[in-house]
Amino acid sequence: MRLSTKFSLFNALSRVAIVLLLVGVLPGTMSRLALLTTDQRLAQTKDKVLRLVYRQGVSAFIERGQKSYGSYNLLKEEFISLEEIPPGPNINVIEDSKRAVEDEIVTYRVLSYSFAQQGRHYLLEIGRSVGSIGETERNFRRYAFFILVVAVGLTTLADLAFFRYLVEPLRTIIRRRLRDVRHPAAFNFDPIGTSTDDFRYLDQSLREMMTTVRLSFEKERKFIADASHELLTPLATLQYRLDNMLGDEALSEENQLRVVESQRTVYRLRAIIKSLLLISKIENDQFERTDTVSVAALVAEVADEAQERLAVLELRLDQQVEPDYQLNGANRGLLFTLLFNLVNNALKYNRPGGDVLVRGGYRPAPDGRYELEVRDTGLGIASERLATLFRRFNKGAAADADSYGLGLSIVKTIAELHRLEVEVNSIEGLGTSFRVVFPPA
Amino acid sequence: MTVLLIEDERALAKELAFFLHQHGFACTVARNGQDASQATADMPFDFILLDLGLPDTDGLALLAEFKENGLAAAIIILTARGAVEDRIRGLEMGADDYLAKPFSLPELLARMHAITRRRFGLSKPLVPMGEFELDVQSRRVLHQGELITLSLKEFDVLAYLVLNRNRVLTRLQLSEHIWGNLPDTGFDSNYIDAHIKNLRKKLGRFASTDWLETVRGLGYRATLK
């Protein structure tokens, strides 16, 4: 999972957790808040009433001949009552209590307060209906929730934007330094602009490593060129000398045979050096891959080249490439070598009068990739040898003196260069099947 | 014919010169670019065999110099550098052929003969071969004017033996000539035996093929006058 995805997920989950937490805590807090506000309001009303009483006397409320005063508002949400009471202990409480109002019982939050005025004792009660408190509470809750959602949304967006800005240099590093950079020749050494020290350090370290890798590739390239010259030139001298010796009519028959034997040895040495250099050159990316290769055409070309050998060995080769497949960004010469090596092995290790099938086609779903199979009706390969088949100098018991055990290493190296997979199946005594699997389209 | 061999490896040059001398070429050896320029100024050559890796100059630069000076010689590039780009550049710059070291000496001879035919034209395009005639240009074998059908590889084997007449060619040399362009998967010399067998069968219907000899343990030889 990408860093930014992880961060976004964490960010979203943490916000959800906060919202859930608040939604759990909010109702209790809100009702408590609503109650406190109500109590405060009741106390303020009490103070106002008391100020009136002190200023204008109780008679402003309780008319002459009356014992008490009571007043409701229209919806019976609030009431104030004042009545004369016998002397007793001071009362100053706020509590819920039920009151009969006209023909219904309403629950009020009631402030009760007793006071003395001109030698008489009075009880002041101010009530607010619990229903209207609930309304206040619901309003509180609505506004709080709305503010919460907006805050969470805004901070989430701000965090994401900032995070994107913050990790942009990292994304540039990945894109420029790592993605689709398969070879030192394609390295891009431009420094990445960032004010974050960590990224700057990371980029610098990567560039240093890339420099080291490129240097060692260049050294290898030079070594390959040197090896080509320094190893092949003395071999050429030796070969020419042997060619000349063979042309010498004075040479005894016995010595002529020795020369032919030496010629074989020189040839063998040469072929091994050339094969190893070929593998190194492929691994060192010294082959251009700019061709578009048709598998059917390649098979036809290899089959054509194998015609003479097929005739000599009395083998049949069947081509079944349907449908065709076009591989882009390939090196035609190398792919020819790959297929030729496989077909040549199928000829070499076949039984007299046997068959070679070269088949191309798509694999059944869900795999669906294109594959090219070279199947023979030959000796087969012992299962314990299959695992090490592509290793260098791995020769089977059936291999002849002309085999160096490098053909399949070359196949593997060329396949890897083209991002192809090579699979092998074999049944001893029945034959072997090599499958070259192409990358999905 | 005269050959200028430009090659800095002393031992290698010696063997090549010896071989060319044996085949009737007058061979001059130059070990560096300066000697080569001097030699071409001194006398005209029919062939220049040019090694690309010279101590004092780049072989391709030397090639450019030869072309600039309008040398008539046929130029064959010899190099251990097998890179295709070098090959293409060399040919583009006017070289007549290209051989990657190490090549076999009969191969060099065959290429030189091919260039001679191409450039100068042979007075007799048909090469006599016993009672047969070999038409190298159009790749045909005739018996008293009648065409004998051979496969591509059979013709290659025969022509190579005839061009290197009276000289034993080993199975390895023949294999390399025929499949030299193919990856080194190990040449199977049995194919050569099969081709020779077929050649004798096809040609034998018309006349004796005694001149196509098997040299026991070594290979084959076309013994021709």
Automatic annotation (TrEMBL), chain B:
Assigned keywords, A-Z: DNA-binding, Phosphoprotein, Transcription, Transcription regulation, Two-component regulatory system
All copies of the Response regulatory domain together span 2-116
- Key word tRNA-binding present in the record? no
> Which residues form the DNA-binding region?
124-224
Which PANTHER family does the UniProt record give? REGULATOR OF RPOS (PTHR48111), TWO-COMPONENT RESPONSE REGULATOR ORR33 (PTHR48111:SF1)
Q: Which domain of life is it from?
A: Bacteria
Q: Which residues carry this modification: 4-aspartylphosphate?
A: 51
> Where is the OmpR/PhoB-type domain positioned along the sequence?
124-224
Organism lineage? Bacteria, Pseudomonadati, Bacteroidota, Cytophagia, Cytophagales
Output this protein's name. Response regulator transcription factor
Q: Which organism is it from?
A: Hymenobacter ginsengisoli
Tell me the InterPro entries matching this sequence.
CheY-like_superfamily, OmpR/PhoB-type_DNA-bd, Sig_transdc_resp-reg_receiver, WalR-like, WH-like_DNA-bd_sf
Q: Pfam families from the xrefs?
A: Response_reg, Trans_reg_C
